[in-house]
Amino acid sequence: MNELTSSKIVCPQCAGENEVPIDEKFTECVFCGSAIYIDKRKIVSHFVINSNFKKEDAEGNLRRWMAGNFQVKDLDKLAKISQSSFYYFPMWYFKTDKSAGETIYLQPATSTSISEIKKINIPAGNLKVYNKKEFNESEFVPPDVLFDSAQSWLKETGVNMDSIATSNLVHIPFYQFHYDYSGKQYAALVESSSGKVYANLWPAKSEAPFRILFALCIVAFFLISLLALVVGASMNHFLAFDMGIKIFGYGFAAIPLIIIAYFIAKKV
Asked: What distance in Å separates the CA atoms of residue 192 and residue 24, rounded to the nearest whole number?
């Protein structure tokens, strides 16, 4: 498979250079009008996604993510950002033919510690043909995962290579932040086209208080059920008393348990 270093395709009739369309298999030569069929399985196009966020905006997104329910309380206020950088990260972008069921496969084109970016969503409308004159080339991370290696990865995942309609190298803009919390350092990426945050590890809420509360709930409801069984049997109205005591006991026990759960959620 031949790899294009530009976004041009040569007309076989007049040798004129034409722009390669993103999602079309046919194009018309702007010089002679000849129809050109483009077999994109044999070329690799280079695209880039524009950045829509400044550093301050990206940091704001990161802080809002830190304030989420899955992060430790007050992480957004206590975390200290120690380092930040901006770069365009390379991803291999493969799309299967519509007749085979259009599917997009993504694979990082260079090593990264944050594997979550494999789940990134790249709408075709966001792809822009890369032009050196429009970007700072020093901000682009060069790929070190070769195209053949990416193809091998596709084969290993069970993809039929004959179904691949397009193969692209896409550079995605990211802000990478390193932050310190409680003596440990963490990293997170903010995709500066959509603002979404990607991270593998972060200071999560401690599970111990929730586990204790869960065990307390089991014990409380077990004791209430046992009490209802004993009292109902002793009163010779087993079913009626059993159900009545359970309803009252469960409702009574739920009040302090809900209050405890509320304070755990607020403090942890």
From this structure: 27
